[in-house]
Amino acid sequence: MKKIFTVLSALFFIGIASINADEKSNGTSSRPLDIHTTKGFAGLTRSINQEVKAFLNDTAKTIEIELFDFTDGEIYIVDQNNQIVDVTQVFAGDTYVIMNQPAMAGHYTLIIISNEYYGEGYFSIE
Predict the structure, then answer these.
(1) Which of 93, 95, 94, 75 is CA-nearest to residue 85?
(2) Full residue range of the structural domain in which residue 46 is found
């Protein structure tokens, strides 16, 4: 019984090690970006269906944004001095947007806005 437990434990840990090795070998390192939806934004009609998820991909140096039930809008990257670093248009039906991460180190705000949605996410580049 002790040998069976030892063999099963070894297989379990080998499996975990191989999963971690696969993740490191594919070269992707992304971390989720917390998007805060602002309530009470002036003139904004709320849609409970719209949702946004964003990820910083440190390997590719991109910001990946998933849009769910999104209408026409814009996505901004603003630096700590409130200067627009990058902007992109989003159209109804778009589900995925990729933007380049800012090249300069600092603190940034990702702003996502449409007629029915306003959200902000904060991130740093080192």
Answers:
(1) 75
(2) 29-125
Residue 10 CA to residue 123 CA, distance in Å, equals: 39
What's CA 2's distance to the chain center, in Å? 45
Euclidean distance between the first and the last CA atom of the chain, given in angstroms as a whole number: 52
Q: What is the pTM of this model?
A: 0.69
Q: Three-class SS of residue 53?
A: strand
Asked if 102 and 14 touch (Cβ cutoff 8 Å), the reply is no
What is the DSSP secondary-structure string of 56-108?
A: EETTTTEEEEEEES--SEEEEEEETTS-EEEEEEE-TT--EEEEEPPSS-EEE
For residue range 102-111, what is the model confidence (pLDDT) as tens digits?
Answer: 999 999 999 9
Q: Could you tell me the CATH number of the domain that includes residue 97?
A: 2.60.40.3080
